[in-house]
Amino acid sequence: MPILEIIKYGNSTLAKRAEEIKTIDKEIEELAQSMVQTMHAAPGIGLAAPQVNVSKRLITADISVGERSEDLIILINPELVSQEGEIILEEGCLSVPDITEKVARPSHVVIKGLDLEGNERVIEAEGTLAKVFCHEIDHLNGKLFFENLSLLKRNLIKKKLKKRIQTGKIR
Ligand code: NI
Prior knowledge:
Layout: H1 26-41, E1 46-48, E2 58-61, E3 73-84, E4 87-93, E5 96-105, E6 108-114, E7 120-126, H2 127-140, H3 151-166
Antiparallel strand pairs: 1-2, 2-3, 3-6, 4-5, 6-7
């Protein structure tokens, strides 16, 4: 499967609500496999389909970045079922290069979605994996991680990003 191009801040696909996947066909399977390769190659611990310019509700996660196959998760139409607690962790995004910020997220989450066989999967996660799920589901709703910050911080980051786009540092 080919490695896909990761689109960056400023591309309108990142700001849109992604569409529900109704049929898990070959196209979705291939997209998922390509996303896994793209995530590993980046390297990253999570990827959402809008980041490869496909406005569909599909995410991949692997907090081991390819080290442990049991850590690889592919979820179709993922939903946050419940959340608990709060944890503040450093966060970054492959679509928002060179910017990391501390973001408050639930410390425990329960997520459900479908795997590539169409079976429902319910996953309990905490810490970093919980953060990844929240971050990737945000992507499916057109939201970037820094949009969880205060208006002041958000505007500072947007200004920084705009400048980088103008000077060609983000393409
Ligand atoms: Ni991201």
